Amino acid sequence: MKDLELRFTQKEDYSELSDWWDWWRWKDSKPGLELLDDLKYGLMVSNEIQNICAGFLYFTNAKAFGLLEFVISNPKIKNKDLRRESQIFLLSSLIVFARKQGVKVLFSSIRNPNLIKTYQECGFILGSKNSNEMICKL
Does the pTM of the predicted model rise above 0.70? Predict the structure, then answer.
């Protein structure tokens, strides 16, 4: 992980992230800037060449409970080892960031089997199976 860099996401990253979500078929459910709180609580992993992956924390009114959502990777990264290493670095960094904010429990909703394995490597446990996400846009 020595060649990987970590930084907070910025509004200027949204266009690239939006392209990634479109490529991964999130076109109809990708988060808007408002939902991402102008990208204030996101982390981006990159190397000297390009951005690799990003993810976002959300803090709730219950200080000890947070959400880790919208983890996405650059579809141009074909090196599976680099992608996996970057995701582990990202998730580990988001966990540390959340812990420093007083979060004791992180919740995340994911479907991709490879990403589920990566989450488990970072200390997440499977909370439920065969459940559905319910969303109400207000």
Answer: yes
